[in-house]
Amino acid sequence: MDFLEMLKTPEAISTLIIIASAGMFITLERFFPYSKDHKFLRNGFFNDLVMYTLFQSYVLAFAINFLIKWMDDTSGLSRLQLVSDWPVWAQLVFFTILHDFYIYWFHRWQHRSKYLWRMHEAHHSVTAVDWLAGSRSHSFEILVNQTVEFAPIVLLGAAPEVALYKGVIDAVLGMYIHANIDVKSGPLVYIINGPEQHRWHHAIEIKSGGINYGTKLAIWDTMFGTLVLPKEKPKGYGITDPYPLSDSNAPILAQFWQDFLNYFKQQAYIFRPMKQTQEA
Ligand SMILES: [Zn+2]
Ligand SMILES: [Zn+2]
Fold first, then answer.
1. CA of 141, nearest ligand number
2. Which of 6, 142, 164, 233 has most Cβ atoms within 10 angstroms of its Cβ?
3. Residue 3 lies in a domain
4. Ligand nearest 132 Cα, by number?
5. What span, in angstroms and rounded, lies between the C-alpha atoms of 225 and 197?
């Protein structure tokens, strides 16, 4: 297959859509910033882009594929082809809503249980929320959430492209809801998630982020009474507890090196003695 042919594969098109969306969000952040003092090369940039987005995703994709293949081999479920007759768009809508409902409740539980908070605090440790911030999630959290997300798609016999399209939706929406863009979505704020809701989820003044748990649809927060939209903007982002983060005052290359080491410290930090946990 030559290079031009390769660019036409669904995998290449999906990757291009994600890169183009990142470019669009970065541009919109420049022209319509939510927090005016935000820097593109902010604290944890290398941590999030290289260690979480590239390295961790690559490694976990193997682990999650292996796990789901094992589930299928032992259960033989995908042979039943339970959703195979549905149109691809219906499969995509079904699995997106199903997983979004799960993630709302699991996310809410992570904020209420001190044990599950351990898996989630990496995500809340970002002190500058932007298009890239959503990528910082502990490997255990991704392992659980993506297995729950992709196992039903495989086991119920969905079309192979459904998993790929779902991955694109996750990546684009993940960048959007964290983006440092001053979006005003009007009545849509009760239906679709965006920076208006999710940046407040990361606000430092909300202890353990106890509001706006949705990731794609805001209907769950609207329905279950957890949607909160303060008029003002948050004073800052992150958690008040100590966490392995690079030193914002160090030169940027020194921060990149610290980010590299901090990735491994953050993975291990989940195992520290329980008494040091922030109260969830
Ligand atoms: Zn987030
Ligand atoms: Zn959260």
1. 2
2. 142
3. no
4. 1
5. 13
Question: How large is the average pLDDT for residues 43-58?
Answer: 96
Please write the tens of the pLDDT for every residue from 104-121. 999 999 999 999 999 999
Are 209 and 202 spatial neighbours (Cβ–Cβ below 8 Å)? yes
The pLDDT of residue 276 is: 53
Q: Which residue in the block uniquely carries the two structure tokens 């030193």? A: 247
pTM across the whole model? 0.93
The Cα 43–Cα 34 span in angstroms is 17
Q: Is 2 a domain residue?
A: no
Q: Report if residue 277 sits inside a domain.
A: no
Classify residue 181 by its DSSP letter.
B
Q: Output helix, strand, coil percentages for the chain, rounded to the nearest 5.
A: 65, 0, 35
Ligand 2 centre from 211 Cα, in Å?
8
Residue 275 within a domain: no
- Ligand that comes closest to the CA of residue 207: 2
Q: Is the pLDDT of residue 199 over 80?
A: yes
Contact 154, 163 (CB under 8 A): yes
Q: How far is the CA of 254 from the centre of ligand 2 (A)?
A: 29
Q: How much distance in Å is there from the Cα of 214 to the middle of ligand 1? A: 9
In the chain, the number of structural domains is 1
- Find the domain containing 259 and state its range: 10-270
For residue 198, report the distance from its CA to the centre of ligand 1, in Å. Answer: 6
Q: If DSSP codes are grouped into helix, strand and coil, which group holds residue 249?
A: coil
